[in-house]
Each structure stands twice: as structure tokens, then as C-alpha cells.
Specification:
Elements lengths: L2 H4 L15 H18 L3 E4 L2 E4 L5 H15 L1 H27 L9 H8 L3 H29 L4 H28 L4 H21 L1 H14 L6 H8 L4
Antiparallel strand pairs: 1-2
Length: 239
Amino acid sequence: MSSSSSSGPAPAGFARRPRTHFDLVVAAYCVILVLSNVAATKGVAFGPVITDGGFFLFPLAYVLGDVVAEVYGFRSARRAIVTSFAAGLFSSVVFWLVIALPPAEFYDGQAAFEAVLGPVPLIVAGSLLGYLAGQLLNAFVMVRIKARTREKHLWARLIGSTLVGELVDTVVFCTVAAPVIGITTAGDFLNYVVVGYVYKVLVEVLVMPVTYAVIGWLKRREPTYGEAGVAGEALAPLR
């Protein structure tokens, strides 16, 4: 009898999961994007200020974007952005398919279901396209500045990347969504863009202490942070 047969069957195979918090951040990315798109179907009014139910969620995606780009680099940030974009797109397709299914005779919530989970396709498209373009630029600027400043001036990276990323995101989304929601004049469109942009940037600035804390926490707990080889790989797409 050969030694291989006497040793018994091979053990079940599994892949080792790297010791990193990156997967948790990506999961949060996906959840925030999907929930913000659903919450955005509800109009919200604070006196004369009109917004949507996702107003407090979506800026958090840029906070996470800054965290990923700062700690893991552009390549990982791009992966997280594309993954969350795919999750948002997939959720929208699923909602549309479920809405199209014929409701059961006893089900009386079809109209409400459509109102909440079946937003105008152009608005969803604008949201996802703006998110993809804005987040990629946000990560690109963040890592570009870090390549020059190293570990100094984190505040400059956070604000600089937000100014660029949120501008592109807001302009793309508003350009697509404005005619759908009834904005037809140049003045109203400009107001729509400026108010949304200023709000998102202000949120990023206000939560900066939290962003600092999360980034510091991750840097201390990621065993490979700061290694030369890892840094070179993270910056490779920018060279």
C-alpha cells in the first residue's frame, strides 16, 4: 500500500482570509449606497429647505472613500467603489424586476412598493454615474496629494479630494435629474447644484474629526500599513 493511500483522504480545502478590515469597509460602502438610493425616494422638508431622505447617508460614502484611499491606496479604493457601484446597480435592477412581477390578488401594496422602490430610472442612473465618477476622482486626488505630503496634512487631502469629487458627483447627478424633477431654468439648476454641493462639502468638514479617528484606528490595526512594497502597489495605478 502506498504512503499516499495510507495517509487517508486529503483534508477539505479552504482559502485563508487576509487579516484586514478592508472587507468590512467595502460592506459598509455597499450598504450606504443602496440605502441612500432607497431613502432618496422620500422628500424631506426642513422649513423652506427641501431635500430627500438620503441626505444624511450619501455624504458618508465620501467619508468612507477618504478612509479607503488614505489607508489602502487608489487600487483598493477603485475596487471598493466599483463593488459598491455594482451593488447599487444590482439592487436597482432587482427592485425593477420585482415591481414588474404580477402582484398576488391579496397583495394591496403594489402602488406603495412602486413609489418607494421604483424611482425614475434616469434619477437612479444619474446617482450611480455621479457616484462612480465622483468617487474615483475623490480617491485619485486623495492619493495624489498623499504621494507628495506623505503622512502630513491629512486635512488638506480630505478637503481637497472632497472639493473635486463632490463637484463632479453633484454636477453629473443634477444634470441628469434636473429635467426629471421639473427644473427647467438655468437659475433653478444653478441653485440645485450649488446647494447640494455646499451641503455635501460642509458635511465632510463637520465629520472630519470622525474621519481622522477612523483613519487612525485602521492605520494602527492594519499590520501591513506603511510597508514599502504595499505603498508601491497602492500607488502603482497613478504612475
